[in-house]
Amino acid sequence: MDAQFAKRRRRDLVVAACLIAIAALVPLFVTDVFTQNIMVLTLMYAALSQSWNILSGYCGQISLGHALYFGLGAYTTALLFTKFGVLPWFGMLGGGVIAALIAMALGYPCFRLRGHYFVIATIVIAEIGLLLFQNWSWAGAALGIDIPVGHDSWLTFQFGRSKLPYFYFALALAAVAWFVTWWLEDSKWGFWWRAVKDNPEAAESLGVVVFDSKMGAAAVSAFLVAVGGGFYAQFVFYIDPESVMGFQFSLLMALPAVLGGIGTLWGPPLGAVILIPLTELTRAHMGGSGRGVDLIVYGSLIVLISLASPQGLVGLFARLRKALLA
User: Fold this and answer.
1) 3-state helix, strand, coil in the chain (%, to 5)
2) What is the number of domains present in the chain?
3) What is the span of the domain harbouring residue 246?
4) What is the rounded distance in angstroms from the CA atom of residue 71 to the CA atom of residue 244?
5) What's 219's domain CATH number?
6) DSSP three-state, residue 113
7) Interatomic CA distance for residues 270 and 244, integer angstroms
């Protein structure tokens, strides 16, 4: 069994490397700006969903408030750049550290809650954060922050003429989030998280430090999500509380993992590849008359997949593979 597990992990790593290499070549053949924009968003949400999956999928702490960490990363990057001239690279790292610290501070009381109580707590805390930023005049309040646009440069991470630099950064972020998850999956923390998810009492009786394992998962998850938020701020050049801390961001981090397979390595990127292009194409082709249609479409898709396979698309593909080999 150990040999099979090690073989599967090596295979996953090889497949991931091949997919990253193929993805890196795609922009050479796809020159349409709209399509490139969709690819950037797809990769970004793949990274965000993979990060969300660390806490909610592997550790079993379902959060619907991760928009708070996304917004913290976006605001930290934007404020440091516009107020103090700090380069976005340091802003993204700073936002990640701040988000990780806040996640642990919030985890201290919240991880004592379980089930739907924890879910409700994450929603309430994220909404409180949204209200605070809407009324924080130094951070632009409800008007938000305009990020000044300069010359195209990797130093300031600003590109007005091409989407390709953003594409490659989003690809790198998705690859890092996937590799971190892959590495943690076979680590002590990964085994602890799965034990906590399955049965916290039994895990604690076997020596698992349940509270510390939850705090570690929250910190890693929040850090990666905040880096994604900092990237998004540089990508759109303008942020306000609703555009980076709205509840829809928490949903869009969770839904790809739910569709693809929560608590799995390949579920979040697979779900993002399906849901995000579907969302953007629906909005583009239906315009204002199609407002909300994207939610109906992929909500229905998730319901159908959940009925067919509660483990998501990854579980469905595994069942089909076994049926074909039988």
Assistant:
1) 80, 0, 20
2) 1
3) 2-325
4) 5
5) 1.10.3470
6) coil
7) 23
Mean pLDDT of all residues in 220-226? 98
Eight-state DSSP code of residue 138: G
Tens of pLDDT, residues 292-311:
676 677 677 777 777 777 78
Concatenating the DSSP letter of every residue in 232-297 gives HHHHHSEE-HHHHHSHHHHHHHHHHHHHH-TTSSSHHHHHHHHHHHHHHHHHHHHGGGGTTHHHHH
What is the C-alpha to C-alpha distance for residues 199 and 284, in angstroms, rounded to an integer?
Answer: 45
Angle, vertex CA 47, rays to CA 315 and CA 211, nearest 5: 80
pLDDT digits (tens, 9 = 90+) for 144-200: 999 998 899 999 999 988 899 999 999 999 999 999 999 999 888 998 999 999 888
Q: How confident is the model over 117-151, as pLDDT tens digits?
A: 999 999 999 999 999 999 999 999 999 999 998 89
d(C-alpha 209, C-alpha 216), whole Å: 11
> At residue 85, what is the residue type?
G
Question: In what helix (H) or strand (E) does residue 298 lie, and over which residues does it extend?
Answer: helix 293-308
